[in-house]
């Protein structure tokens, strides 16, 4: 997982670390012929020499060196190219590079510092800022909601939405919640049968109508059943659709208008990279959602979707699908992702 991105970030860390080491050597050379008294005198000279004088002062008086923009420029461009090659969306790559630049340029570092660690810390913080767009805590939200909680899952075809609903149902059961599933995908052939298999395997009540029925009515019936039977959570499947399918998008808007779900969750696959990010952006513009689940994250070598999607939509990643079993669902934690990028 993230192998290609880890390789590129590791390469950048080594190259930029080497460039910073060169600046450190320059600082040491500048220090050698200059005494402290001379450095103090130089500090009082004309403003035109301020940049050079600051470097002398840092090296001689404070045993520090200053990282300047000129020494980073080419390397930051290489970082941007590496991020783009890893399917990080362009605005996100530009923001990460900007964040790295802010973290490093003009900063003072002690001579003898671990330059690789300096770069890694800057990268971690830069990436953390784009993946941590919201402090939303899913479990706390569910706990605080009046029951039943209704969650509608949306997205395009073939990204693992139905399986994700089954994984979420398993997770809720393990937490002690009672669950109802609504078979709201009445458009795709075999969709009802597919989710029925999952519901039976998990021992969960499935509310379904015939193929072609109104999904808003099915989800409404599931909510009424949950209220009557004092169930905690309603998980509603919907037909996969592109944002360009006006009829299906209107149908989805009706589902949300009629049933007023507590959460709308967008599901897509991590391995789709930039395509997943763009779909999320367009989908969110058409039917705003509350968060994202990325499936097949364990098979994603690039990591671009996981890094880009939250910043692009302004909505948090909630979970990552990490395998085929019902338990292979990981609650998203920015530090978890960062640790794997820099392990």
What's the main sheet like? 8 strands, mixed
Question: What fraction, in percent, of the residue positions are helical?
Answer: 55-70%
| Rg from Cα | 26 Å
Tell me the number of helical segments per DSSP (H or I, 4 or more residues long): 14
Average pLDDT works out at: 82
Would you identify the regions where 5 or more consecutive residues have pLDDT less than 50? 31-63
Report, as a whole number of angstroms, the end-to-end distance.
Answer: 12 Å
Structural class by helix and strand composition = alpha/beta
Strand content: 5-15%
Q: Please trace the helix and strand order, writing H or E for each element.
A: HHHEHHEHHEHEHEHEHEHEHEEH
* Biggest sheet: strand arrangement: 5-4-6-3-7-8-9-10
Shape: elongated
- The number of E-state strands comes to 10
Helices and strands, with pairings:
Elements: H1 3-31, H2 36-43, H3 50-61, E1 64-66, H4 69-85, H5 90-104, E2 108-110, H6 115-131, H7 138-144, E3 149-155, H8 161-174, E4 179-182, H9 191-202, E5 205-207, H10 215-228, E6 233-236, H11 246-259, E7 263-269, H12 274-286, E8 291-295, H13 304-313, E9 317-321, E10 329-331, H14 334-341
Parallel strand pairs: 3-6, 3-7, 4-5, 4-6, 7-8, 8-9
Antiparallel strand pairs: 1-2, 9-10
Helix pairs in contact: 1-3, 1-4, 1-6, 2-3, 4-5, 5-6, 8-9, 10-11, 12-13
